[in-house]
Each structure stands twice: as structure tokens, then as C-alpha cells.
Amino acid sequence: MATAVSFQKISRYFGPVRAVDDVTLDIAEGEFFAMLGPSGSGKTTCLRLIAGFEQPTSGHMEIFGVTSEGVPPYQRNVNTVFQDYALFPHMTVLDNVAYGLMVKGIDKPTRHRKALEALTLVALGSFGSRRPSQLSGGQRQRVALARALVNEPKVLLLDEPLGALDLKLREQMQVELKALQRNLGITFVFVTHDQGEALSMADRVAIFNDGRIVQVGSPEDIYERPNTKFVADFVGSSNVLSPAFSKAAGGPEKWASLRPEKIGILPARAKPSPGQQGASAKIIAAHYQGSVTRFNTRTANGEVINVTVPSSLGKFAEGDEIMLHWPKEALHIMAGEA
Amino acid sequence: MRSEGSPLLLKIAALACVAFLHVPLLLIFLYAFTTEEKSFQFPPPGYTTKWFGVVWERQDIWDAIGLSVKVAGIATVLALILGTCAAAAISRAKFFGRDHISLLFILPIALPGIVTGIALRSTFGIMDIPFSTWTIVLGHTTFCMVVVYNNVLARFRRTSGSMIEASMDLGADGFQTFRYVVLPQIASALLAGGMLAFALSFDEVIVTTFTAGQQSTLPIWMLNELIRPRQRPITNVVAIFVIAVTFIPILAAYYLTREGEHTAGAGK
Questions:
Q1: Rounded distance, CA A297 to CA A72, Å?
Q2: What is the pLDDT of residue B203?
Q3: Are strands A66-67 and A304-310 parallel, antiparallel or unpaired?
Q4: What kind of architecture, by CATH, is found in domain B52-267?
Q5: What span, in angstroms and rounded, lies between the C-alpha atoms of B37 and B234?
Q6: Is the pLDDT of residue A311 over 70?
Q7: Do A104 and B171 touch (CB under 8 A)?
Q8: pTM above 0.80, yes or no
Q9: Which of A221, A321, B217, B223 would give a disulfide with A268, using CB separation of 3.0 to 4.6 Å?
Q10: Whether B181 contacts chain A with CB within 8 A
């Protein structure tokens, strides 16, 4: 498959701040690619570099094999769905969607027909004559999507596209975006700080920290096999265990991650079954969260381990001495240092 | 309405304020119709509309009106262009000393007219620029620009910056973006700013005194006329004209920006 976007040692500095620092990355055609990281990690700047709103300080960038340095945003076959949607308040929804075609000089009947098709695609076919101010947040989001898609971009960029929506709408839009991307086959690059969103929608995820990519891989890779402490911490609040702990569990002296949901709880003097590892601990706090209960526990040598178990099994309380146990392979030794 | 709840004293105070502000204006209207031409006595000895006819016949009044309209028109156009550019630069770009420059833009309206006037006069003197219509226009543009700048800046602050990026992203170049996205956003602010600027320029006296050569704008003509003892009601007739010309645009500007606020708020 062709490479849609290629970063080759791209850096972008704002004065002394290295917003993007020596990033090398290939995004394949037709891929749903997520850039995940905390705020200020450089993910949005990467998106703006693809869109053309920023130019790299150094490095080389290609979009479908064409060098993109110095190419202004309006000459790139790339469209963006903005975080605040950036709809034009003085135009109707239909004219908003038709805008890209209008500035290209396409005649009114044609552009209105295509805009209507795009609106129908996002289930807003009958909203063309309204103003953006008369739409709900979710509807505006779809208009922004239709306005970008009507230009038939080769790459669609989405900047925190679901950030402003409430939880239920967000889950619904995740499903719809994913389906849309599958049907259209367009490369989607989307930026988010919500790990759940990234893992559920993307084919591949890049984790950003301090302007660098720390890990790229499938959601499963990232979640199950984080390569650094940072990734383990950021993606799904994993337990990060000290090199000493790994060594005691029979592994190399390296940082390790252990998912809260992989751990089970046994009474204090119970023995873990074969193939399982165990550690004695004490429950510091218990948080009932509906279907699951989350326990904060501490081992004898001070390691804090969070455990999530189905609430139906949660017969333990704060202060209880317990035995933690997990399958041997669940303890993931991380290659990276930090 | 809660008016029945307000104390009597407050009502009297409010009425007194309104009277204080507007009775002098009523007197101007009244004395435009008096038959006594040398001094203003109350009540007027008789009423006539002949002064309107006299004004109509006087070429010097028409010249003054013509000059005032010309100066206000050109100053407004210049102020619109310069004020919009300044507001765009201040709101979009981040650079060292931006806040100080913003203050410098607003200063001419806070500065006493006499200071602006003297400063401009000595500058023109040093640079050997002869006084003409254009020196008046320059003087007026200094403070007209401020009203446009303030109006447009306020609008820019309310509009999302990503809209311009969205336009570029959708394939519009700089000119198209300005034409289809920026201009419609700031149109009512420009109209309001322009009308205020026109009204400000139209009745300006102090700066004009320092920057005019032999010509007189309408306010200057009125000032000169008041010193003469004859045909005083003519000044009142002209004053009514000035009130109409300045008041209507200010009222319109008020309503335009008020409605602009509504649409901008709803668009977010």
C-alpha cells in the first residue's frame, strides 16, 4: 500500500520550545491513524504540519510522494475537521459544505448537489437551509465532517473531533466515524488525548510525549505491550512496577507493566495456582464503580498496585490482607528506560 | 417593569439629568424659528421659517457643508482601511510590544484635541506641507481610525481564528478568505465604525482649527458666524442640520453593533 503521509526527521521549534522533535513516521494509505498524547506533546503540531498551517523547522515531509514543504494549505489535497468545527456563522449549512467547491469555481447547481450528497452522508440531508447556530454540537460536528469530505481529500485530519461532545454522543460518533472511514477508504489522521477513543477507532496509534513519538503500533500492541513507563502510564492507567519487583517475580531487572484487570484477588494465605505469580498486599482503598470495583493495594515492600475486579467478586474491604495473583505472561517487561 | 418601585427622588433626578442634557438642544430648535436676529430672548418675540430660505441661498454655507462632507468621507475611508489593518495585525499576530502599540493606536482619542492639533500643525510646519483639505483629512484620520480600530478589534476577538484556517484548508487563497469569510464577519463592525468616524469628523472643531488653511468646515463656519451679531438664527438652522447628519449615523451604528452582538453570540 502506498504511503499517504511521510515524516522524515521532522522538527518544529517555536523559539526554544521543541514542539515536534525529530519525528519520523509513515502513515499508510487508507489507514485510520491516531496521534495520542497529553496536551503539549506535539500531536496537534504534527497535524498542523500535515495541513500546512505550520512549516517544519527541519526535516522532510511528503504527502502521497509529493514534497509538502512550502506548499500552502489551500494547495494541499488534505482537509481538516477542526476542534471547534470553525463553521462559517454567516452562511447556511449547505453553503458551508459547498464552500470548498465554491472557491474552486464550481458552478452553483453542481456544488449544491454535491454538498447535499455530503450532508446526506452524515445524515443531515434536510438541514441545508439552517444556520450553524441552529444546530446542536453533534450536528455541527457532522457538518464540519461533510464540509471536509465534499472536497474528496486524500487525507482527512481530525483535531480532537469528539472533544466537545457529551459521552453518549461521543460513543455514537466513534462508531460512525469508523464506519465512514471504512466505506470511503480515505486516510484518517486524528489527534486525541483520550486513549479510549484512540484504541477503539484507530488501526494504528502513535503515542506522543515531549514532541517525540515514544511508540507506534496497533491498539493491542500499545495496550498490551507498552515499551516505556510513559506509555504504560498514559494508556489505560496500568500499574508500573519497579525493576526490583520484576526481578523478584523472576524477570530481568527492568520496569514492568501489569494491567489492573489482569490481576485477581485471593484471601491472604492462599497459594496462586501453577502458571500464576503472586504477591501479598494490603488493600488501602476500595472504589466501587458499578460493574467493577477498583482496589488500591500496597505490597510489603511499598509497591502500589491497582486492581480492577468484577464487583460480583468484590467481597474484600479496606484494610484486608490479601494475595494478588496474575498469569505469568501478564507481567510485561518494558524495553525502554524511562 | 419595576418602575413603580423606584423612589420618587430617583425619578426626579433622572428627569433632571434628561432635561439638563436635552433642553439646550430644544432651545437650538426653538431659536431657529425666531424673528429676532441679534440676540436670543426668551420667549422669542415671533416665529418664522424664513431663515431656512436664507440658509438655502448662502453659498458660503454650501461650501462649508461640501468641505465637511468631503473631509469626513475621505477620513472615514482612510480610517476604515488603516483601522482594519491595525486591528487585524493586533488580533492575529503575536509580537513584542503588541500591547504598547495597541495603546498607541487608541491614544489619539484620549489625547486632548488641542494637543493633537498643535502636534500636527508643527509637524506640517517642519515638513513644509501647505495647509489644505488634505491636512484636515490627515488630522481627522488620526482619531477616526481609533473608532474603526476599536470596533473591528472587538469583532476579531469574538470570531474564531480557526475560521480563517478552515477557509484556507478548504482551498481558498488569502483574497478569497478575506472576501468570503473575514469581510462578512466584520461588515457590521465596519459600518458602525465608519458611521461613528464620519460623525466624529463632521463636527470636529479643535483639530480642524489647527490643520485647516483658509477653508472652513461647517463647525468652523458656525463658530465664526456666532461671533458676528447679524442673522444669528442662521447658525441654529445649520445646527439642526448638523444634529441630523451626526445623530442619524450614531443611532444607526448603535443598533447595528447591538444586533451584531446577537448574531456573533448565536454563532458560537
A1: 54
A2: 82
A3: unpaired
A4: Orthogonal Bundle (1.10)
A5: 9
A6: yes
A7: yes
A8: no
A9: A321
A10: yes
Hey, are the CB atoms on A103 and B176 less than 8 Å from each other? yes
Q: How many CB atoms lie within 10 A of CB A162?
A: 23
**What is the value of ipTM here, to two decimals?**
0.79
Q: Which residues does B199 contact at the CB level (< 8 Å), separation at least 6?
A: B245, B246, B247, B249, B250
Other residues' Cβ atoms within 10 Å of the Cβ of residue B49: 9
Which member of B163, B170, B173 has the closest CB to residue A79?
Answer: B170
Q: Which residues contact A284 (CB under 8 A, 6 or more apart)?
A: A296, A297, A298, A304, A318
Measure the CA dihedral B213/B215/B219/B225, to 10°. 110
Q: What is the residue-wise DSSP string for A210-270?
A: TTEEEEEE-HHHHHHS-SSHHHHHHTT--EEE-HHHHHHTTS-SS-EEE-GGG-EEEETT-
> Which pLDDT band, with edges at 50, 70 and 90, does B245 fall under?
confident
How many whole angstroms separate alpha carbon A307 and alpha carbon A262?
A: 8
B94 touching chain A per CB within 8 A: no
Helix H or strand E segment including A323: strand A321-327
Is residue B259 predicted with pLDDT exceeding 70?
no
A336 and chain B: CB distance < 8 Å anywhere? no
Sequence ranges of the domains in chain B: 52-267
C-alpha cell at A182: 471504512
Q: Does B1 touch chain A (CB under 8 A)?
A: no
Place of cell 482496589: A295
Query: Quick check: A76 and A52 in contact, CB under 8 A?
Result: yes
Instruction: Please check whether residue B249 is in contact with residue B147, taking contact to mean a CB–CB distance below 8 angstroms.
Output: no
Angle between helical axes of B98-110 and B133-158 (0-180°, round to 10): 130
Q: Which residues neighbour A239 within 8 Å (Cβ) at sequence distance 6 or greater?
A: A257, A258, A259, A260, A263, A304, A305, A306
Q: Which amino acid is at A318?
A: E
Residue A66: name the closest of A58, A75, A74 by CA: A75
Q: What does the alpha-carbon distance between residue B178 and residue B156 come to, in Å, rounded to a whole number?
A: 13
DSSP assignment letter at A130 = S
Nearest C-alpha neighbor of B76 from the set B246, B257, B264:
B246
Distance CA A328, CA A167 (A): 36
d(CA B137, CA B152): 21
